[in-house]
Amino acid sequence: MIYIALGSNLPSARFGAPLDTLNAAVDAIERSGIHVVKHSRWYRSPAYPPSDQPDFVNGVIAVETLLPPAALLTRLHAIEASFGRERQEQNAARTLDLDLIAYDDVACAGADNEPALPHPRMVGRAFVLRPLQDIAPDWRHPLTGETISALIAALPPDQRAEVLENGAK
Predict the structure, then answer these.
(1) Is 94 a catalytic residue?
(2) What is the pTM of this model?
(3) Domains with residue ranges and CATH for the chain
(4) Which is nearest to 85 in space by CA: 13, 2, 34?
């Protein structure tokens, strides 16, 4: 299974509030030929690293596609751009963030224009792990073999992600 993390902490001119933007992004992913199989609940989390940015709304989807990882990531970046995402500064507030976090059991360091898989920073982020657990409770990290439950248990106390009351999927 292929997993994509979604996040937003700025309203988009076309779709409105971050939650509305994320719902529209899931639809755009599906329309782009990537089949959405499962969808986590939506979560609210503080910006990371800590800053004065607004909180993020985050989730994870499971998808099926014949696109290889690099082509899939290129398509995800095109969808981000269509939602007004500008990649100018790392960790900046954004209308839409789409991250390829895992692609089957592929483990890749990210050389030769290939994305690093699984996403190298996912293991320390509650806003990725908690929604991933919603849709893949038996997922194991392909490099370490750690379960999603063990990864969540190892999160530092400052890593928070709370289910949105209106965020059920």
Answers:
(1) yes
(2) 0.94
(3) 2-163 (3.30.70.560)
(4) 13
